[in-house]
Design brief:
This protein has helices at residues 16-26, 39-47, 60-69, 82-88, 97-101, and strands spanning 7-11, 31-36, 51-54, 74-77. With 103 residues, the chain is an alpha/beta fold. A four-stranded parallel sheet has the order 3-2-1-4, with helices on both faces.
């Protein structure tokens, strides 16, 4: 087996799953860029050995640019789905209904 080191971008890197994913890829020596939405998340990514980049996960241009700058070999998407997050936070789905009904 070869000892190839990859450049890996992880979206949602400051989530619980994202943090574990960062740790698992950093451990064998891969270059991990963790995408996060704010400074606290960036600090979390760095604390696990990743390179933090603050981006808006709903902005395709920012995501593309972060992936290109990282020269990613692999992209791992662990960003939570918006509707699932809202429902688990006890918020209603009704504000999102317009997204599903508008043509």
């Amino acid at each position: 087996m070869t000892d190839t080191k990859l450049s890996i971008v992880i979206t949602g890197a400051d989530t619980e799953l994202g943090q574990e994913t960062v740790r698992q890829f950093v451990a064998p020596g891969h270059k991990v860029t963790g995408l996060t939405q704010d400074k606290d998340g960036a600090a979390t990514v760095r604390s696990h050995g990743g390179i933090a980049v603050e981006t808006d996960p709903s902005n395709a241009v920012e995501l593309r640019d972060a992936i290109l700058v990282a020269n990613a070999d692999v992209v791992v998407n662990v960003t939570p789905q918006l509707a699932n997050t809202l429902l688990s936070d006890g918020q209603e789905l009704s504000p999102l209904n317009k997204w599903f009904t508008e043509a």
